[in-house]
Design goal:
Shape: elongated
Number of helices: 10
Distance between the termini: 36 Å
Structural class: mainly alpha
Radius of gyration: 18 Å
Strand content: under 5%
Number of strands: 0
Length: about 200
């Protein structure tokens, strides 16, 4: 069991490091696709959450099948969490999220919101590039970015993908071989992640 836990921890650190390097390379080349986005968040956010789920299962004597189910649940929850985080990064409001909601734009963060416009809406993408990577985005410019993401369908698309992953995580809770009380706790966690505003 101790060996398994160490293996999970070392694999997670490796995945997160590789995900960070991959993200930096894609950011430099500005050619991120939606598939790239998912690979990055699986390696970073989702791997961290899924490993915590796996370690928790192992610590109470779960078998290999149960640990694998917890990995799948953690991966889905992690992807949903990150998409929500990316949406809040632009739509959340500074007072709610505890950071500027222009920082993702200023840092040219290539989220699912960005990649959808880049890949599917070239006219809107040209408009988006007026603001992405620009320093000191004003409130008026933020509103323009939000308008581009709304009108292009990017915001709606990101919400749909996020909701799909939250639904998947809930379905994976049902498949867990654990007490109903524990399932309800995990379900409560997912509901909290769905409604959180920061």
């Amino acid at each position: 069991k101790d060996y398994q836990m160490l293996d999970i921890i070392s694999s997670t650190v490796k995945a997160m490091s590789e995900g960070e390097i991959y993200q930096m390379e894609k950011a430099r080349r500005m050619d991120i696709t939606e598939e790239d986005y998912y690979e990055i968040i699986k390696a970073k956010t989702a791997s961290l959450i899924s490993s915590c789920c796996m370690l928790g299962a192992l610590s109470v004597g779960a078998n290999e099948s149960q640990v694998e189910k917890m990995r799948k649940f953690g991966t889905s929850a992690g992807i949903a969490f990150q998409i929500k985080d990316d949406i809040l990064g632009i739509y959340g409001g500074k007072n709610k999220i505890g950071k500027s909601n222009t920082s993702d734009i200023e840092e040219f963060k290539q989220t699912i919101l960005y990649s959808y416009v880049k890949i599917n809406k070239p006219d809107y993408y040209k408009k988006l590039l007026k603001y992405y990577g620009k320093d000191n985005i004003t409130e008026e410019e933020l509103i323009e970015v939000q308008k581009i993401l709304d009108e292009s369908g990017s915001h709606k698309y990101a919400i749909e993908k996020m909701n799909d992953m939250f639904y998947k995580a809930k379905q994976e809770i049902i498949l867990l071989d654990i007490k109903e009380q524990i399932k309800n706790i995990l379900l409560g966690l997912i509901i909290y992640l769905e409604i959180r505003e920061k």
